[in-house]
């Protein structure tokens, strides 16, 4: 789960936040951002582990941030009947996800996309800034490193490899 999504779930009042990642090195950052439980998705059966943590029912709201058909399907399968799945990760235009049609109807699950948090910048940026100023939103936790313009290619390589959260480009010497 993305660190921004974890902080958003915490701000929304989620009592339990389960973060899963194939890169176990990312899980401590998830806990530091507010995850109450973590799952090593590289080792565990993700859906089974989430269902075990939720007493067999699944999560109320699954948030998928990778953008791969397998993780979209896992988020759907790990979400309880009547729950919602929000797709944040951007899948490729030619990628498809197969879901049983009867399950969509019978389980009453909702699937929705979210680009940039489905935000209204004029409304939401001042609210987010105020939350950050009051210490309720930890923006620094979202930044893995500050880089110069010459390091952008390496930052994209790290992102594709699942290393780090976000790199911020600083024009001038990185601080």
UniProtKB/TrEMBL annotation:
Keywords: Metal-binding, Oxidoreductase, Zinc
Name of this chain's protein: S-(Hydroxymethyl)mycothiol dehydrogenase
Lineage: Bacteria, Bacillati, Actinomycetota, Actinomycetes, Mycobacteriales
Enzyme's top EC category: oxidoreductase
Keyword NADP in record: no
Entry EC no(s): 1.1.1.306
Lineage: superkingdom: Bacteria
Cofactor(s), by name: Zn(2+)
């Amino acid at each position: 789960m993305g660190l921004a999504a974890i902080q958003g779930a915490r701000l929304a009042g989620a009592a339990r936040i389960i973060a899963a990642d194939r890169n176990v090195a990312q899980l401590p950052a998830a806990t530091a951002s507010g995850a109450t439980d973590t799952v090593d998705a590289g080792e565990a059966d993700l859906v089974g582990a989430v269902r075990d943590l939720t007493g067999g029912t699944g999560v109320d709201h699954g948030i998928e941030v990778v953008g791969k058909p397998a993780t979209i399907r896992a988020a759907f399968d790990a979400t309880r009947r009547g729950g919602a799945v929000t797709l944040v990760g951007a899948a490729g235009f030619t990628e498809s996800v197969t879901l049983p049609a009867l399950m969509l109807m019978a389980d009453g699950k909702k699937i929705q996309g979210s680009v940039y948090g489905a935000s209204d910048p004029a409304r939401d940026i001042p609210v987010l800034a105020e939350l950050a100023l009051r210490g309720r939103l930890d923006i620094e936790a979202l930044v893995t490193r500050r880089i110069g313009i010459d390091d952008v290619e390496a930052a994209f390589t790290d992102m594709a490899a699942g290393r780090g959260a976000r790199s911020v480009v600083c024009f001038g010497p990185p601080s």
